[in-house]
């Protein structure tokens, strides 16, 4: 077992346990263990299970992102307040005010990244599991997790539409495998494009769309499907099925998020408010931890400004003026 497999071992074991368990369940229901459709259903079930288990993390990620977007104007005020101040005291005060803002608003800047980091090893492990099924079946490498050589051989010998699940577009001469691989690559690239496109056009504000980062993302919308198409010719059909199903899940999940938890000042938010108005409901969306946070913060800032203005004026009483 190589270093990469050792590092991913617990995740490979977890993924393989779900895959093997689903295959066992499907065969007990009467499906043949050498049928490609049995393994396709097991792969689909594995993707759905993993994504469903990670859905609570995704929801936390979205809520954290939305809260960060809501308090962005306040964050910009703090940044402007300490702009150009490089001394240690100012930097410390800047950090305290920034993290105090996050804490009061219930927004976690790291919460947007954490779910993605948690998901990555599970999907790397699944990628490794499906991509090595052919070599495991031939005994060239050790079985990974609970996915034994016998099970790998059954997957390697199974077919759908005349194409083997471990066949690839580039390395197999079988026409059925090439056609199925090509269809899956096109669908996979198309779903990736639609997912990225709807995010850019529906869930980004006009200011964000005009930023340099948005322009880079617009380039990636067209580049990533090409990258997937180029790399996909090397992947077995089983892995392409996993990737395609995962993309469909992501596309549907994002559609739900954009529809029900849109980002502030975006076309999606306008549609959400109009839809809620037609239903006679309040368009709440994602709320801050303290719904009155922004109003309270503005009131506190107004009091500070009034106190500072009063200190600068320093009015004198009539008695003091008469004495002079």
From TrEMBL:
Record keyword Cell membrane present: yes
All copies of domain Membrane insertase YidC/Oxa/ALB C-terminal, residue ranges: 39-258
MF GO annotations: membrane insertase activity
Subcellular location: Cell membrane; Membrane
Family the UniProt entry places it in: Belongs to the OXA1/ALB3/YidC family. Type 1 subfamily.
Function, in words: Required for the insertion and/or proper folding and/or complex formation of integral membrane proteins into the membrane. Involved in integration of membrane proteins that insert both dependently and independently of the Sec translocase complex, as well as at least some lipoproteins. Aids folding of multispanning membrane proteins.
Protein's name according to its UniProt entry: Membrane protein insertase YidC
Originating species: Serinicoccus chungangensis
């Amino acid at each position: 077992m190589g270093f990469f497999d050792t590092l991913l071992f617990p995740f490979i074991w977890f993924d393989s346990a779900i895959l093997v368990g689903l295959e066992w369940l499907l065969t007990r229901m009467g499906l043949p263990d050498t049928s490609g459709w049995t393994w396709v259903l097991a792969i689909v079930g594995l993707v759905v299970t993993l994504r469903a288990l990670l859905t609570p993390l995704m929801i936390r990620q979205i809520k954290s992102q939305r809260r960060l977007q809501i308090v962005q104007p306040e964050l910009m005020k703090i940044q402007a307040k300490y702009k150009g101040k490089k001394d240690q005291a100012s930097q410390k005060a800047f950090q305290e005010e920034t993290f105090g803002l996050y804490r009061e608003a219930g927004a976690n800047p790291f919460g947007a990244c954490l779910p993605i980091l948690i998901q990555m090893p599970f999907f790397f492990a699944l990628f490794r599991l499906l991509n090595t099924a052919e070599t495991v079946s031939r005994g060239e490498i050790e079985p990974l997790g609970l996915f034994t050589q016998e099970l790998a051989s059954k997957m390697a010998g199974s077919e759908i539409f005349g194409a083997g699940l471990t066949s690839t577009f580039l390395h197999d001469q079988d026409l059925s495998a090439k056609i199925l691989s090509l269809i899956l690559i096109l669908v996979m690239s198309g779903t990736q494009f639609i997912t990225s496109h709807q995010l850019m056009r529906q869930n980004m504000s006009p200011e964000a769309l005009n930023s340099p980062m948005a322009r880079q993302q617009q380039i990636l919308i067209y580049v990533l499907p090409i990258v997937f198409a180029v790399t996909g010719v090397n992947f077995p059909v089983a892995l392409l099925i996993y990737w395609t199903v995962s993309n469909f899940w992501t596309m549907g999940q994002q559609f739900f998020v954009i529809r029900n938890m849109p980002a502030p000042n975006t076309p999606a938010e306008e549609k959400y408010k109009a839809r809620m108005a037609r239903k006679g409901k309040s368009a709440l969306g994602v709320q801050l931890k303290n719904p009155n946070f922004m109003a309270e913060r503005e009131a506190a800032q107004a009091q500070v400004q009034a106190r500072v203005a009063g200190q600068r004026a320093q009015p004198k009483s009539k008695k003091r003026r008469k004495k002079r």
